[in-house]
Specification:
single chain, 550 residues, alpha+beta, Beta-Lactamase, Heat Shock Protein 90, 5-stranded mixed beta sheet, rod-shaped
Length: 550
């Protein structure tokens, strides 16, 4: 029959307070207490395990002993009953054959002396009782019946004339077996108590120093070495463990002392490192300020050189304009004198008109040239001295930059060529780009054409395949750069002509400007004798920075 499902067991309750704080533990909580006790105590587990095994052994031994004793007693009782009916069969046959009820009663009456006797009966050949004898009272349980056939004694036919039945009870034998079983069980329980007591004594002698050593190890793990290791008077496993724990305590104390010394040393080192870091930070700040000043000085030096070059370039159209203006002034004076005189000829008026027209055209051309130069210089100078962001056309901006740089090339035989298609629009910082192009062209003029006066510097640009970037190249056909120098050309204060006109900051400024301001990258390819190519890759939309006009 299926059993009805009971309520689901509640989850175990864990608390940092003892059970007494919540009142008596409910019955279902007691097994949990036992489980925790067994989980925390080796002695409890060992005693419970061994005692359980001994108890099971005793129960099995008592059961086997009682079963065997009961079986043997019943078998002995059966043999005694069969032997008794065999012995009395002759007398019972004689009494039945002579129809002597008195003799039969006397014969069966002797069986009542047996303590296990229940009753007996002599049956005739038809199975009817001839004589029947039984003890008074209810019939006890555990009955055994033995039968023996009765045959004729007189004559040689041996005809069966009846049956003798004897009934005995096995209750006394079973009680004896049970008594012997309880005696064995009592002896086993006594033995179990003695064994458990001895086991508790032995295990307690082992676990007590183990618990003490566990406490010592906990203290050592917490960093406290002023604890006492328990002393074990025996040189057994526990004694050797205590000796090893004492050695561990000594080593732990030495190790903690070493750690303390190392901690003090680390603190001193950290203080020294902090002081040194502060000094280095101050030195780095000073170096950065000096580097910024050098960068600004380099920019202003480049701008100053451009001013000198453009001043020389503007001098020619302005000088020509001054000469033309002076000539026109003299011709105007002559014209006024002729007009004031009496003789005015048409041919003379035509001559003055032609001279005034030619002079005016020359004056306008020279002044326009000067105005163009001044306008380009103004835009380039404003861009270089500010960090203002604006959209610009690459070809136009680079053309204005090159216009400012050409006067420096006129003094040499070198040529500066620009091959940039129009329409490449960039939203970025033209001043930073001007600084990059100026430094790259100036670097070629200083380093590429040593001993030559027919060099060519070519500035080219093209859109990349995706259209999101621009590749600007400044190439020369000069002497090239040695392989051992090439990895260091962008380092600050590195120059092959340091102290001879080179500051070592030109290409470093290019690298920093391209990477930090323009948001691009720069690469160089060069072989000695085959010229140098600087390739600048720029996004068409530069990253945004804080824009403050210089």
């Amino acid at each position: 029959m299926p059993r009805a499902a009971g309520p689901a067991p509640s989850p175990p309750r864990y608390s940092c307070f003892p059970d007494a704080a919540f009142g008596p533990a409910p019955p279902e909580a007691r097994p949990r207490v036992i489980d925790r006790l067994l989980a925390r105590s080796l002695m409890a587990r060992a005693v419970v395990l061994i005692c359980t095994l001994l108890a099971l052994t005793i129960v099995l031994a008592v059961s086997v002993a009682v079963g065997v004793t009961t079986r043997d007693a019943r078998h002995a009782l059966e043999e005694r009953a069969h032997l008794t009916v065999q012995v009395l069969a002759g007398g019972a046959a004689a009494a039945l054959g002579n129809d002597d009820e008195a003799a039969a009663h006397a014969l069966l009456g002797t069986l009542s002396l047996d303590p296990d006797y229940v009753g007996s009966v002599i049956l005739d050949a038809g199975g009817k009782p001839f004589v029947q004898h039984a003890i008074a009272g209810p019939r006890p349980p555990g009955l055994l019946t033995a039968r023996a056939p009765l045959t004729e004694i007189i004559g040689s036919n041996g005809n069966r004339i009846g049956t003798l039945e004897l009934t005995l009870t096995a209750i006394r034998a079973e009680q004896g077996s049970a008594s012997r079983g309880w005696a064995i069980a009592a002896a086993g329980c006594g033995l179990l108590v003695l064994v458990c007591a001895a086991l508790v004594w032995i295990v307690h002698g082992v676990t007590r120093p183990l618990l003490a050593m566990t406490g010592v190890m906990s203290e050592l793990a917490a960093g406290r070495t002023d604890v006492t290791v328990p002393r074990v008077p025996f040189d057994d496993e526990v004694g050797r463990m205590a000796a090893a724990l004492a050695t561990l305590k000594t080593h732990a104390a030495e190790r903690l002392e070493f750690i303390a010394r190392q901690a003090r040393h680390v603190e001193e080192t950290e203080r020294a490192v902090a002081e040194r870091t502060r000094e280095l930070s101050e030195a780095l700040d000073t170096l950065r300020r000096a580097q910024d000043e050098l960068l600004r000085s380099e920019k202003m030096a480049a701008l100053g050189g451009m001013v000198a070059a453009i001043a020389h370039e503007i001098n020619s159209p302005l000088g020509n304009s001054l000469t033309i203006a002076t000539t026109l002034e003299r011709k105007i004076a002559e014209f006024e004198a002729m007009v004031a005189g009496p003789d005015i000829r048409r041919s003379a008026l035509r001559g003055f008109a032609e001279k005034f027209t030619a002079g005016g055209q020359l004056l306008i051309a020279n002044l326009s040239r000067a105005a163009d130069l001044i306008g380009s210089f103004k835009r380039v100078a404003v861009d270089q001295t500010s960090e203002r962001r604006r959209p610009f056309d690459l070809a136009t901006t680079v053309g204005e930059i090159v216009t400012m740089l050409r006067p420096a090339y006129k003094k040499t035989g070198h040529r500066l060529l620009v091959e940039i298609p129009p329409g490449i629009a960039i939203d970025g910082y033209p001043g930073a780009l001007s600084q990059v192009v100026t430094n790259l062209v100036a670097n070629a003029l200083v380093h590429a054409f040593d001993g030559r006066d027919d060099g060519v510097v070519r500035v080219t640009a093209r859109l990349e395949a995706a259209g999101e970037g621009v590749e600007l190249a400044v190439a020369d056909d000069g002497a090239g750069i040695a392989a051992e120098v090439l990895p260091r050309i962008f380092d600050p204060f590195f120059s092959t002509r340091l102290g001879s006109g080179g500051s070592g900051l030109g290409l470093h400024i290019v690298y920093v400007t391209v990477a930090r301001v323009l948001g691009g990258g720069i690469a160089v390819a060069s072989e000695p004798g085959a010229g140098t190519v600087f390739t600048v890759r720029l996004p068409r939309t530069a990253p945004r920075h804080d824009e403050t006009a210089a």
